[in-house]
Amino acid sequence: MIDGKKVLFSGMQATGTLTLGNYLGALKNWVTLSEEYECFYSVVDLHSITVRQEPAELRKRARNLLTLYLAAGLDPQKNCIYYQSHVSGHAELSWILNCFTYMGELNRMTQFKDKAAKHADNINAGLFTYPVLMAADILLYQTDMVPVGVDQMQHLEITRDIAQRFNAVYGDVFTIPEAYIGKSGAKIMSLQNPQKKMSKSDENPNASIYLMDEPDVILRKFKRAVTDSEGQILYREEQPGIRNLLDIYCACTGKSPEEAVKEFEGKGYGELKEAVGETVVSVLKPVQDEFARLSEDKSYLDSIIKENAQKANYYATKTLRKVQKKVGFPERIR
Ligand code: TYM
Q: pTM of whole model > 0.85?
């Protein structure tokens, strides 16, 4: 609790170009939840270097991502929006938690297996202990709630396990966090292969809607979206392409799948694709415009970065000192 409010933490990697999946699965929910909770939203640049990055590019992407958090509607006076690398407590707590995490647990992480297969020439220890750093991010702020897409659930589970293990030894040190998964949009699929998650790293640019895609590009990608030959618009597993389009529509409009199916009753796939494309354009356009405006305002962004890093450091240090004391590190002499 901070000032009587529950704490919320979430983060995104500044790797690749953000997709509609990141927006509907995470960012959009962050904005909805931001009034009710005391929120920390991090640009998790420490996580990004588990895969080789070009330094200037990483720096640029990280700043763009932070700007995008604001452009999506997060108020930086009320929400703590900062770079993970500006708060050394993340790395420090991560080390301690590493000593409370088993190799066997980390070996079971599906994201590690996927990434190791993709980057076979660079299976570094950071990639392996990635979930521990994620646990540190969350536990550092005594977080109650973590809004994420379905793909991060396994990391949330291990975070809870590590926290419970630590608490069992040292008493109630960490708040045990809960995941928040949105009603719709928690798993947006590729437009070219609806069995696969929409991902920043997809090689086929038609598979993903990028948040900065121009309206005509968005409409064209939806037009080309892979569907099926059933010819009817129903929300069911047998029609993953149509279901994905309906999911996107529902996540953008707040409608339920039943309402959406009713709305498109008797209509063709072409009409559905056009309607979904236009809805997505109407949701993304204001974010894109605000992004362009904010990007020009260097001194405003710099002031946000500075102030919010101080705030994050304050709360992070509070937890870190408590943990250091519990594990038996010597007291600091002032
Ligand atoms: P990242 O950067 O891969 O994704 C950011 C958020 O977007 C969600 N997401 C999706 N949701 C729905 N459909 C999709 N196709 C889709 N693709 C991505 C993700 O679930 C995530 O919520 N490890 C994390 C970043 C992280 C983090 C944390 C998150 C680091 N520390 C602490 C929460 C709490 C990651 O790589 O997310």
A: yes
Of 7, 9, 19, 22, best ligand 1 pocket probe by most atoms within 8 Å of the beta carbon: 22
- Per DSSP, the three-state class of 72 is coil
Check: CB of residue 240 under 8 Å from CB of residue 194: yes
Active site residue 267: no
Listed residue (207, 262, 197, 255) closest to 232, CA to CA: 262
Instruction: Name the active-site residue from 28, 115, 221, 273.
Output: 115
Q: Are 26 and 147 in contact (CB under 8 A)?
A: yes
Which residues lie across from 39 on neighbouring strands?
A: 8
Q: Specify which residues 9 forms β-bridges with.
A: 40
Give the model confidence (pLDDT) of 105-159 as tens digits: 999 999 999 888 988 899 999 999 999 999 999 999 999 999 998 999 999 999 9
Which residues surround ligand 1 with Cβ inside 6 Å? 9-13, 21-22, 25-26, 44, 47, 134, 137-138, 146, 148-149, 151-152, 186-188, 197-198
Give the number of other Cβ atoms within 10 Å of residue 310's Cβ.
13
Q: 271-283 burial, b for 16+ CB within 10 Å, e for fewer?
A: ebbebbbebbbeb
**Is 28 marked active-site?**
no
Encoded amino acid at 185, one letter:
G
Among protein residues, the one with the nearest Cα to ligand 1's atom 22 is 148
Mapping DSSP to helix (H, G, I), strand (E, B) and coil, where does residue 295 land?
helix
Can 115 be counted among the known catalytic residues? Answer: yes
- Cα(125)–Cα(99) distance, integer angstroms: 14
